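Form 7-S
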Amino acid sequence: MIKGIVMDLDQTLLHNDKQISRYTLQVLEQAKRQGLTLFFATGRSVMRIENYRRQVQPEGLICLNGGLNLWQGQRVSQYPLNPTLVKSVVERLNGLSGCRLTLTYAETIFTNDPQTRHDDPIYHRADLPGCPMDSVLKISINLDSDQEAAWLNSLDCTCLANAHEPGYMFLSAPLSAN
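Output:
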């Protein structure tokens, strides 16, 4: 018997315009009326899914590729990266030509990306070496070349590349920790 539905967002639930169709919302509402529990499972932070959360009202959230998990709005687990690892990544890649870094915490996101909109309430431009190195749940990395990819893959963490966005990689706590 099916008891719930776990949904990814990007390239799955969301259309190319980053919207959930009216039909899909109706189907999900019907599923809830039939007693199914809805979950989002996404690489995004909680802050970056708020609009979708209001529309669907899932009971469970698996965010940041499992780095932060909520049930009925309450945090049930989080898996930060090792602060020493975060520091070494920031020291090695911050300021590297063509490299943009983003440090995601449970409730805020810091980036060195100069293209980040100044009016975006989610992202905060920051001097990353000055940011806290503990409690980082995900590091997003945009590289213009794959020159650092081998080094990143050698680190004691989960390192994945995004198939839809060349040059984009992310680091999160080792899967064995989740």
